[in-house]
Design a protein that fits this description.
single chain; 376 residues; alpha+beta; Transferase(Phosphotransferase), domain 1; 11 helices; 12% strand
């Protein structure tokens, strides 16, 4: 890292990094310097590739990366511009977004995610804390996405902070650590649900409870909590939150197309095959214990240099097995075929032989009488 940056003060610290305010002695600007708490070569390499790609992208909705690399102590650091405005989380403490505010946030978030997805970059840990908004009203709101490389790191190890950090984690990340474009789509659904309801779609007292709600799709229908917006918006957000990744839009561009058509299609009975490659590396599932940073996830593509994710997976904990099977898709219970009760075999009724005996005897007596008269 260049010696031109002078550290002024510490802004915040979490389990994966420290963020400081610095001065650029060359230009006189105040900037942000984030120092990641890792010296592992594979993690340094992953972060280097991630921020190399991010620095090449031009978007008003991306955190502006100015410089990046290892510092004199061997830690990886990045320098970025100061973010204006407030986080979406802070704004939602005052109440849910209006329809116009929601549309401004949704469209700008779809724009920046579309840019990332087309470059095979996945954010992987998107949540309202990583969305910054500046401007006086919805008409001039400017949305900025940041938090790349930080994963699910919280500011401390408290249960409340862990729930806050993991509240937008997709079911496949809880189960086996899989991270892809559809994972970002799910996280965006969580962010936008919270934007309209002013409360997260999933909550819990401990991570194990939160995990169960995400995998079990245990949430209130958004229409009940956000009646101030059209029903199609609520249906569209709920569509992004499908448990099965194959039932969600495959990337941000597909989600935006549905949004512009003002619709959320019914889920197909048989989902189409995915055209994108899932993560095939041995990425561990999200842990339910203390957060330990691991190497960034890499999405396999034809060109590995354009296949970076900012997700930093967490080490496996005692409550989650790396080989845990996927939960089967919930469906109607299979009914056993109806089998009528067995009836006793039908037997022929007993024949009363007494009348036949009487008739036979009468006929015999009549023949005897006739024969006797004839012989006389």
């Amino acid at each position: 890292m260049s010696p031109r940056f002078e550290i002024l003060r510490l802004l915040e610290e979490d389990a994966s990094s420290k963020l400081s305010l610095v001065r650029d002695n060359k230009r006189g600007d105040e900037l942000r310097l984030r120092r990641f708490k890792t010296k592992k070569p594979e993690e340094i390499e992953g972060l280097q590739e991630l921020f190399r790609q991010l620095a090449s992208l031009q978007s008003p909705h991306l955190d502006r990366v100015i410089d990046f690399g290892a510092d004199k102590d061997g830690f990886y650091t990045i320098v970025a511009g100061v973010l204006p405005g407030e986080t979406l989380s802070t704004i939602l403490e005052r109440g849910p977004l209006s329809e116009k505010e929601f549309e401004a946030v949704a469209l700008q978030m779809l724009d920046v995610l579309d840019l990332l997805h087309e470059q095979s970059i996945v954010h992987g840990s998107l949540r309202p804390d990583n969305v910054r908004i500046s401007g006086e009203n919805a008409a001039d709101w400017q949305v900025t996405l940041h938090g790349f490389g930080q994963g699910f790191a919280g500011r401390n190890d408290s249960k409340e902070e862990q729930i806050r950090a993991y509240r937008c984690t997709a079911p496949e990340q809880w189960i086996d650590g899989t991270t892809r474009r559809r994972t970002d789509v799910y996280a965006l659904g969580c962010v936008l649900y919270e934007a309209l309801a002013a409360r997260p779609p999933f909550d819990g007292k401990v991570l194990k409870e939160l995990r169960g709600k995400h995998i079990g799709h245990d949430l209130a229908p958004l229409q009940k909590l956000a009646s101030h917006v059209p029903s199609w918006i609520c249906a569209w957000v709920m569509h992004l939150l499908a448990v099965d990744p194959e039932q969600r839009p495959r990337k941000a561009a597909a989600a935006r197309e549905l949004f512009e058509r003002r619709e959320a299609p019914n889920l197909p009975e048989l989902p189409p095959q995915s055209t994108e490659l899932p993560v095939t590396s041995n990425t561990p599932p999200v842990s339910l214990t203390a957060q330990q940073v691991s190497s960034p996830v890499v999405l396999p593509t034809a060109n590995p240099s354009h296949a970076t994710s900012s997700t930093i997976p967490i080490a496996v904990g005692p409550h989650v097995s790396p080989t845990m099977p996927r939960r089967p898709t919930t469906g109607p219970a299979q009914r056993k075929p109806f089998t009528p009760p067995r009836k006793p075999p039908v037997t022929a009724p007993a024949v009363n032989k007494k009348p036949f005996i009487i008739v036979g005897a009468a006929i015999l007596l009549l023949l005897v009488a006739v024969l006797t008269r004839c012989s006389g």
